[in-house]
Amino acid sequence: MPDLFLELFSEEIPARMQRRAGEDLKKLVTDGLVDAGLPYEGAKAFATPRRLALHVAGVPVRSPDVKEERKGPRVGAPEKALAGFLRAAGLDSVDQAEIVSDPKKGDFYVARIEKPGREATEIVAELVADTIRKFPWPKSMRWGEGSLRWVRPLHSILCTFGAETEDPDVIAVEVDGIPSGDVTYGHRFLAPGPIRVKRLDDYMTSLEKAKVVLDADRRKDIIRTDADNAAHAIGLEVVTDEKLLDEASGLVEWPVVLVGSFDERFLDMPDEVIRTSIREHQKCFVLSDPKTGKLANRFVLVSNLEASDGGLAITAGNEKVIRARLSDADFFWQSDLKTPLADNVAKLDDIVFHEKLGSQGERVKRLETLAAAIAEKIGADPAKAARAAKLAKADLVSHMVFEFPELQGLMGKYYAEAQGEDAAVATAIEDHYKPQGPSDDVPSEPVAIAVALADKLDMLTGFWAIDEKPTGSKDPFALRRAALGVIRIILENELRFPLAADPDLLNFFADRLKVQLREEGARHDLVDAVFALDDQDDLLMVVRRIEALGTFLDSDDGANLLAGYKRAVNILRAEEKKSGETYSGRPDPNLLTEQAEKDLAGAIDIARTDAAKAIDAEDFAAAMAALATLRAPVDTFFDDILVNADDPALRENRLKLLNEIREATLAVADFSRIGS
User: Fold this and answer.
1) Residue 365 near residue 434 (C-beta atoms within 8 A)
2) DSSP letter string over 101-142?
3) Phi and psi for 150 in degrees, rounded to 5?
4) CA distances from 577 to 379, 532, 655, 659 (A)
5) What is the DSSP letter of 356?
6) pLDDT at 675
7) Quick one: where is this thing mainly located (predicted)?
8) How far apart are CA 271 and CA 273, in angstroms?
9) By CB neighbour count within 10 A (0-12 exposed, 13-18 middle, 19+ buried), where does 229 fall?
10) Is 512 helix (H, G, I), strand (E, B) or coil?
11) 58: which residues sit within 8 A by CB, 6+ positions away?
């Protein structure tokens, strides 16, 4: 079957948009083909700074004829119902529909619709034009006098369709005065001439000759390999930066790696400052000395040119810019060191944190109090925690963080160390933002833990108080991340730290904990079952209880007890609904006439007592083991005893015994929230 090949050639597409754009192009076109009745065998998208390309293999030459039967309303139905049926079926009047009789439902209309297939070239022409006009760029605008919105000016459309053994046809498409063809163009500077294209294979070969590497992953591999080789040649190593590697591969079509240098005096600054400055301003990689692990005064740049002088001028130009940028950074570094962090705290009063929650200065005061209180609970030094909280945001008004906001916290640590602050305080200043994502480390030093918890809990309680909670996919203040951060800090440091939050916020933590545990393979219904109990705000104990509950329910005793519990509860609910009564209170021992019910009552008393002792000792496995002893007497009870006895007093007593099963299991979890 034929292949479809499409290229959209434009001015430079921002690197951050290229991969997503390639996937969007693939999805829009392939979904459109399938919807039109043209299934395909495979598809692959490509993106470079100047082009999006798509190859779709095995596309039928024509969509199939379609016969469809659509049932309509009854004969004599209201006009609105008839009009809706005709509109949906594409009929002009009911005379075009058939009347079908049904012995039970009477006569009703049926539309028999026949849609002839269409040529694939016709479908593709419409689909490509529609895709271009509706393409979901994050940012786009109109260029020139046309009406088309595109990320950068679109210059040409290449669209061919045909079998591998034949010369493909050019599918006629025109968008905003840009006609389709079978021509693309090579590298902007090295080989800018036109290239005639038939299909993917000759397209890639021709582009390679014209100094364009089409595949983004291959450009990444070239950059990575050449950079590593260049660094090793001078005894250094490239500092890994996958995000920068992705970006660099999206800035060039023909990657050429060059090595430059900068003045050694700049190495007196923190490595992160040098790396950030060089990465942000020039998109260059820094190099380190493998013997010391410290940065070297060399960098790797990725050019889009094979220069006649071997890249000397390009390297010199980058060195000049980097020298200027590092001079600025050094000025910021030296200036900030002269200002004690404590002197910056007063400036935070002029920075609004949130209009309803006050300034950063007011927030810092809250953090001081909260961090000290948390420190007492987790065995940290309250005075150091309060000091760290006071200085935690002070670097926000520094020159360096103003220039590089991503260095907040880290620069505060460096300034604190240089100004003689306690090591625990300096560490807490850096770590209190952590974790900022699932792959980020959590604070492990007690003072840092206290400040990090204070920072996140203040965020959550504050925004909850002003009713600025996450809704749907919207979470402008990253409160989900803050809650997950609290959870990870508590669990990974095994902290006994009751949250003491209001019920709604505690439910929010429960939801975040479900996400966390589900990723680790736990069942979310077990989280519900434990959180349904009163005062379950000690997350470490909640998780341990959930783990023990999961292990218990995976056993035969646990599964059978759960089945017995559900049977008991179903009987209770039915009787409670029928009578309007609840069967609470202890059963009358004098009405326990059968051995099976006597045995069950005795087993419940023992299990309840043993489970309570185990829970008090925080031995949840033992609590589950205590409940496991109920399995046999519960099974025997249901085998031997008729719960709904004719004698009302006997029946009520037995229902109370069933309620005892429900009450006993509440020692460890709310079994009603556990799925079968």
Assistant:
1) no
2) EETTTEEEEEEEEEE---BHHHHHHHHHHHHHHT---SS-EE
3) -145, 160
4) 52, 23, 13, 14
5) T
6) 85
7) cytoplasm
8) 5
9) exposed
10) helix
11) 1, 2, 3, 40, 41, 42
Cα dist from 354 to 167, 201, 349, 375, 479, whole Å: 64, 56, 12, 26, 14
Residue 676: the pLDDT is 67
86 phi/psi in degrees, rounded to 5: -65, -40
Question: Is the CA virtual torsion 537, 539, 541, 542 positive or negative?
Answer: positive
Q: What is the widest separation between alpha-carbon atoms in the chain?
A: 105
* Beta bridge partner(s), residue 196: 183
Residue 237: exposed, middle, or buried by beta-carbon count in 10 A (0-12, 13-18, 19+)? middle
Report pTM.
0.81
- How distant, in Å, are the alpha carbons of 169, 237, 276, 293, 450 from that of 234? 53, 9, 23, 15, 45
46 strand-pairing partners: 53
- 632 contact partners, CB below 8 Å, separation of at least 6: none
User: In this structure, what token pair is assigned to residue 172?
Assistant: 């006629």
585: alpha, beta or left? (left if phi > 0; alpha if psi -120 to 50)? left
pLDDT of res. 95: 87
Burial class (CB in 10 A: 0-12, 13-18, 19+), 10: middle
296's enclosing H/E stretch is: strand 295-303
pLDDT, averaged per 10 consecutive residues of the chain (676 residues), comes to 96 97 98 96 98 97 88 87 87 87 85 89 97 96 91 97 91 96 97 95 96 97 98 97 96 98 97 97 97 96 96 97 98 96 96 96 97 96 98 97 96 97 98 94 98 97 95 92 96 90 87 87 87 84 92 92 92 90 91 94 95 94 94 93 92 93 91 87
Question: Is residue 80 exposed (0-12), middle (13-18) or buried (19+ Cβ within 10 Å)?
Answer: exposed
Question: 131: which 2 tokens?
Answer: 């895709």
- What are the start-end ranges of the E strands in 237-294? 237-238, 256-261, 285-288
For the chain, give me the number of helices (H) and strands (E)? 24, 20
pLDDT at 139: 95
Cα first-last separation, the chain = 50
β 178-181/285-288 pair status: unpaired
Contact, 18 vs 5, CB < 8 A?
A: no
Q: Is the peptide bond before 179 cis (omega within 30 degrees of 0)?
A: no
446 alpha carbon, distance to own chain's centre: 29
Strand order across the beta sheet in which 66-74 lies: 66-74, 106-115, 98-102
d(C-alpha 478, C-alpha 457), whole Å: 12
Return the SS3 of 304: coil
Length of the chain: 676
**Who contacts 166 (Cβ-Cβ below 8 Å, separation ≥6)?**
none
Q: How far is CA 338 from CA 331, 594, 605, in A?
A: 11, 87, 71
φ, ψ of residue 637 in degrees (nearest 5):
-60, -50
**393/4 Cα distance (integer angstroms):** 56
Closest CA to 384 of 296, 318, 449: 449
Q: Angle of helix 446-465 relative to helix 382-391, nearest 10 degrees? A: 60
Alpha helices per DSSP H over 311-359: 312-337, 341-345
The 3-state DSSP class for residue 573 equals: helix
pLDDT of residue 97: 87
Write the secondary structure of 424-491 as one string of H (helix), E (strand) and C (coil). Answer: HHHHHHHHCCCCCCCCCCCCCCHHHHHHHHHHHHHHHHHHHHCCCCCECCECCCCHHHHHHHHHHHHH
